[in-house]
Design a protein that fits this description.
By secondary structure, the chain is mostly helical. The protein has helices at residues 2-24, 29-55, 62-67, 78-90, 94-117, 125-132, 134-140, 157-169.
Length: 170
């Protein structure tokens, strides 16, 4: 009841003010009525918006929550991080190319040859050589000698790209 009385006070005061101004300025009655109607409409609209906000739930709806995708974790895959390290090291020194990157490339080449061409990398070296190409074969062949200069230059990125392309072509 108190709320209804407090809500009714403002329009009553507005009406009283409009009547006083209309009596005080008789030539401006039309303008006073228009301003009164505009302010009264603004009050009604503000009250309707407040009632609508009170009726709506706070926060996102169940529909909005269902549409939200879960946050992706930006955690790197450990195997991918390992290969990236091996590539970085393999392009730096000959030692890292032979002892870090080469075993991974041999494993990948062996698995691809076995799965896609039924060729054993170590058991049928001639077939593996033909399938892989010279550049890749020189890197993954089983009898490849360790580098004499441990800190010698590793593999060039262009050559590594060619090796990867030949493996992808299997």
């Amino acid at each position: 009841m108190r709320r209804a009385v407090s809500l009714a006070r403002l329009p009553v005061l507005l009406t009283a003010a409009a009547v006083i101004v209309a009596v005080a300025l008789p030539g401006r009655t039309e303008l006073v009525v228009r301003i009164y109607a505009l302010v009264l409409a603004a009050l009604v609209l503000a009250r309707l918006v407040a009632m609508l906000r009170a009726a709506l739930p706070r926060g996102p709806s169940a529909f909005d929550r269902a549409l939200r995708r879960p946050a992706r974790s930006h955690e790197r895959l450990p195997e991918l991080a390992k290969i990236e390290r091996e590539v970085t090291l393999g392009t730096t020194t000959a030692f890292d190319l032979h002892y870090r990157l080469r075993p991974s490339l041999r494993r990948i080449a062996g698995e691809l040859l076995a799965a896609r061409r039924s060729i054993d990398l170590d058991g049928d070296p001639e077939a593996a050589r033909r399938a892989l190409g010279e550049e890749t074969w020189e890197l993954v062949r089983p009898d490849r000698e360790p580098p004499r200069e441990r800190f010698g230059r590793g593999i060039e990125l262009a050559s590594l790209g060619a090796v990867v392309s030949s493996l992808e072509a299997l």
